Amino acid sequence: MLLIVGLGNPGKKYEKTRHNVGSRVVGELKSLNLKDIILVQPTTFMNESGRAVKKITKNYKLKTENLIVVHDDIDLPLGEFKIQKNRGSAGHKGVQSIIDSLGTKDFTRIRIGIKPEQYYRPFRSTEKFVLEKFTKDEEEILKEVIPKVIEEINNFIK
């Protein structure tokens, strides 16, 4: 059994924000009717994601190596993604919440880039930036990258 968690914030207000890209991917995965895979979009806020993930892993008696967390990453350019295992949070509070709740970083992360070309961190609040909605041009880039992420997830689980 595999658990795939898409991080984001609950509610319509956050639906198309940069911080919810992980949740969007898992939402699209749900239409594929994957077998022996639990797909979760936590209803907790991002920074409390660990509570939900811990509860699910405990209820299903899942090992952390059977966990894939899909999330936004401000350090990766928009349109790129990386799959990594056993890494720190790199400042992502949702991922840190999961690491803290599970007591380990031994799980797979799919980091989806949200950093546009013209982003200068010293001049913007990261917290405000990730809660903004994607621009129309950025949405077009997402429409190209999300299917690639889903394809990689399919390859990973086969």
UniProtKB/TrEMBL annotation:
What positions are marked as the site Stabilizes the basic form of H active site to accept a proton? D72
- Give EC number(s), comma-separated: 3.1.1.29
Residues at the catalytic site: H19
Site note Discriminates between blocked and unblocked aminoacyl-tRNA applies to N9
Where is it located? Cytoplasm
Q: Which UniProt keywords apply?
A: Cytoplasm, Hydrolase, RNA-binding, tRNA-binding
Binding annotation for tRNA: Y14, F45, N47
The entry's cellular-component GO terms read: cytoplasm
Q: Name one GO molecular function term.
A: tRNA binding
In the record, biological process GO terms are:
protein quality control for misfolded or incompletely synthesized proteins; rescue of stalled ribosome
Q: Does the keyword Hydrolase apply?
A: yes
Q: Which InterPro entries match?
A: Pept_tRNA_hydro, Pept_tRNA_hydro_sf
Q: Which reaction does it catalyse?
A: an N-acyl-L-alpha-aminoacyl-tRNA + H2O = an N-acyl-L-amino acid + a tRNA + H(+)
Assembly, per entry: Monomer.
Q: Known PANTHER family for this protein?
A: PEPTIDYL-TRNA HYDROLASE (PTHR17224)
Q: What is the documented function of this protein? A: Hydrolyzes ribosome-free peptidyl-tRNAs (with 1 or more amino acids incorporated), which drop off the ribosome during protein synthesis, or as a result of ribosome stalling.
UniProt-listed NCBIfam families: pth
What name does UniProt use for this protein? Peptidyl-tRNA hydrolase
Q: Which organism is it from?
A: Candidatus Nealsonbacteria bacterium RIFCSPLOWO2_01_FULL_43_32
Query: Gene of origin?
Result: pth
